[in-house]
Amino acid sequence: MHELTRELFVKNDSKIVMLVADGLGGLPLEPGGKTELETAQTPNLDALTKKGVLGASIPVLPGITPGSGPGHLGLFGYDPLKYVIGRGALEATGIGFELGKNDVAVRGNYCTLDSQGKITDRRAGRIATEESAPLAKVLAKVKVPGVEVFVEPVKEHRFVVVFRGDGLGGHVHDTDPQKTGVPPLDPLAADPASKKTADVAREFIRQARELLRDQPKASGLTLRGFAAKPALPSYEEVYGLRAAAIAVYPMYKGLARLVGMQIVGKAQTLEEQIGVLAENWNNYDFFFLHFKYTDSTGEDGAFQNKVKRIEELDAVIPRVTQLNPTVLIVTGDHSTPSLLKSHSWHPVPTLLYSACCRSDDCQTFGEREAVHGGLGQFEAKYLMLLALANAGRLAKYGA
Amino acid sequence: MHELTRELFVKNDSKIVMLVADGLGGLPLEPGGKTELETAQTPNLDALTKKGVLGASIPVLPGITPGSGPGHLGLFGYDPLKYVIGRGALEATGIGFELGKNDVAVRGNYCTLDSQGKITDRRAGRIATEESAPLAKVLAKVKVPGVEVFVEPVKEHRFVVVFRGDGLGGHVHDTDPQKTGVPPLDPLAADPASKKTADVAREFIRQARELLRDQPKASGLTLRGFAAKPALPSYEEVYGLRAAAIAVYPMYKGLARLVGMQIVGKAQTLEEQIGVLAENWNNYDFFFLHFKYTDSTGEDGAFQNKVKRIEELDAVIPRVTQLNPTVLIVTGDHSTPSLLKSHSWHPVPTLLYSACCRSDDCQTFGEREAVHGGLGQFEAKYLMLLALANAGRLAKYGA
User: Fold this and answer.
1) Nearest C-alpha of chain A: how many angstroms from B55?
2) What is the predicted pLDDT for the residue at A32?
3) For range B137-151, the mean pLDDT
4) Is the terminal CB of chain A with fewer CB neighbours within 10 Å at N or C?
5) Distances from the Cα of B225 to the Cαs of B87, B104, B170, B250, in angstroms?
6) Number of CB pairs, chain A paired with chain B, less than 8 A apart
7) Angstroms from A120 CA to nearest CA on chain B
8) Which residues of chain B make contact with A340, given a CB cutoff of 8 A?
9) Any bridge partners for residue B172, and if so which?
């Protein structure tokens, strides 16, 4: 697909806004009832629906529930089955660590070891974050010649290690044996290019064991999900777009950074995000604006709160349309029905407005309407093609 | 796709029922008229439609009419363009011959030969089944050292040969020259691994010619469609499902067996099939229930009979829902419009019910409604993903 866009993209003065309401899609609480989005009073989104076109976005494949990584890669136009962000890289991304091309990121777990070095608790009793965070500073003392080592706290027993250096392959087997009563495994290279990484990890573990020896709650560690920075071509390369990301949470900034978007502003609220959008309007072609709370309320099973968050989103729409974007898209990276309290596979209602979008009969923005929309049901990875096309940024294919 | 399901499947206590009404989809007899399904009185399926979600299943690709093999492989989640059941294997499956991994199955045709061994009739005058069936017993006398030989009658001039032994590849060219006035071709291996099979076939043909020499109506034979048992991963492997098949006809039992389903019961009627379903409820996770007569009435061009068969199906639905399946799917492997008296490419109306299926606006189970359904138009191979998702049997993809 990017082979096509690389060949066809053209540049112009258009502006594309992709407003991602995380986990937007939902379910009714009772059969025959309304979803969160259908329940919400959304006069602005409904007005846009009448002028725009709806569709139902399938994040990965029918029935497949995506995590945030694959969910956003799809929206960004990167086939989420082809481009896989390794666990370690995603964890580093999630805490806002900016991965470079010489980095290998690894998820670490503190554990407890007995006198023979056998694991007694794989998660160190889920040690409290305030107790585990200082341990990252202790481990940061490890020195491996020729390699930079970063250790960052995450939460409870989890931390992130990043090895930075030349010739570090990303394929090393986990050292977590997935059971207690045995010692952690040796880090073994899964391919020849990762031999140096395995050696570095082994030395890191050796020194870390010394440093943790006297720690009462976390006397050992395991390493999992070794991953190099995923090789994603940038928005500039594949779409010819100068892209900006306006997100509050590190994970989404990180995902945007992986596809070459610039992180702009330091907004902490949706209102502030719209402010950042307006301030940067002239400097970019594409704006990814991420709204988290439609997902977190869904995860909490808080139907009414999710409804309110959707109404909050609706309320800022006029401030976006006032900027007169060429293409305005409102969608989600997946559904998070309050009923399920989790991400789900259900298609995501998606609204696209442009002056040439070919409107449909849809009157209100909702799951049931979206199914009848002019965009039909489509795999999320195609949304960027529609965005570019509606912005006049794709030339004709073939003569 | 199975790479994905192997990684993501989880086990739980859910029950999935897939009720396949063979050739379910149809056409109106006159423009503007109703299809068989739309004509039928289906109060139970309509009630389920109101709580469930509809869609239109595309068996292979738009415009492609499938046989029973690809039709069912799609429903079972095996890409019918990737997994091909060789002709010989399908013929053996169709007569209920249980193929093993050391088997090569071949379709045989009786023919007539002149004194010089040249074919005078490629189908032996479509010899009557009661005359050809005993010939299978005659041919079963063939002995090839180191190989077991099975010969089974099919119908008229057709029979099946199965060679069982070590090192038998499945790629041997047909011996039918597709014309008269020439002798049958020599069986030639199409790859080195099938040389032994070709030798075995040559010896089989030599002895068979001796045995048939004095048969007035069928003095020779040709062999076509050499095929090993297709290597299909099992439901247990790719979905983690203990699957049962409840079918009346050998072909469908055979297809189910190829994907590792257990054939349960000896039901001869739909009522009995539902009884078998209930009896085996606690022993399996997934039930494939095959109903043949929506197809055979369509093939006969008997519109009203097909309507009645659909109503017969509708009448047993309460006995299925009483079992409280987590996911209930009603679909077909393809359309068989009475108007065409044959299988067709038209999408198949498909109903899925679960407590989290995200219902749509559809009110009755029919072709026109299904087009507007919440599942949209989808390739049949994705149906199993939806079944697993709705049963809570697929973990999240990526973090």
Assistant:
1) 11
2) 86
3) 94
4) C
5) 5, 10, 9, 20
6) 92
7) 27
8) 356
9) B189
Q: CB neighbours of B115 closer than 8 A, spacing ≥ 6? A: none
* A50, two tokens: 């009448």
Contacts of A27 in chain B (CB under 8 A): 356, 358
What is the rounded CA–CA span in Å between residue B2 and residue B385?
A: 10
Task: Please name the residue of chain B whose CA is at the shortest distance from the CA of residue A88.
Answer: B399
Is the pLDDT at A135 greater than 90, yes or no?
A: yes
Nearest to B397 among A65, A376, A377 (CB): A65
What pLDDT was estimated at residue A94? 83
Those residues with Cβ within 8 angstroms of residue B307's Cβ, 6 or more apart along the chain or in another chain: B36, B39, B40
Residue B139 CA to residue B132 CA, distance in Å, equals 11
CB pair distance less than 8 Å for B356 and A340? yes
A368 membership: H or E segment, kind and range:
helix A367-371
> Do the strands B220-228 and A327-331 form a parallel or antiparallel pair, or are they unpaired?
unpaired
> Which residue in A24, A345, A350, A381 has the most chain B C-beta atoms within 10 A of its own C-beta, making it the best mutation to test that interface?
A345
CB contact under 8 A, B397 and A90: no
Asked if residues B213 and B254 have their Cβ atoms less than 8 Å apart, the reply is no
Distance separating alpha carbons of residues A255 and A260, to the nearest angstrom? 9
Give the alpha-carbon dihedral of B260, B262, B267, B273, to 10 degrees: -80
For residue B389, list chain A residues with Cβ-Cβ distance below 8 A. Answer: 62-65, 344-345
DSSP element (H, E) containing B150: strand B148-155
Q: Which residue has the tokens 């945030």?
A: A68
CA–CA distance, A108 with A103 (Å, rounded to integer): 15
Pairing of strands A16-21, A286-291: parallel
The two tokens of residue B188 are 């030639």
CB within 8 Å of A315: residues ≥ 6 apart: A44
B39-88 pLDDT, tens per residue? 999 999 999 999 999 999 999 999 999 999 999 999 999 999 999 998 89
Nearest residue in A to B1, CA atom: A61
Supply the DSSP string of B20-35, one letter for each residue: EETTBB---SSTT---
Residues of B in contact with A342 (CB under 8 A): 396
pLDDT in tens, A339-366: 999 999 999 999 999 999 999 999 999 9
Rounded CA separation A111/A209 (Å)? 11
Sequential DSSP letters for B117-133: S-EEETTGGG--HHHHH
B109 phi, psi to nearest 5 deg:
-120, 130
Write out the DSSP string of A264-307: -----SHHHHHHHHHHTTTT-SEEEEEE-HHHHHHHTT-HHHHH
What confidence tier does B155 reach under pLDDT thresholds 50, 70, 90?
A: confident
- Consecutive H or E run containing B248: none
Whether A345 sits inside 8 A of B388 (CB atoms) is no
Tokens in use for A320?
């976006």
Q: B356, A339: Cβ pair inside 8 Å? A: yes
Tokens of B181: 């006035």
Contacts of A91 in chain B (CB under 8 A): 399
Q: Which residues in chain A are closer than 8 Å to B390, comparing Cβ atoms?
A: 63
Q: Which helix (H) or strand (E) holds B226?
A: strand B220-228
Which amino acid, B254?
G
Amino acid at B382: Y
Cβ-based neighbour number of residue B268 at 10 Å: 9
Q: Measure A389 CA to nearest chain B CA, in Å.
A: 24
What ipTM did this prediction achieve? 0.88
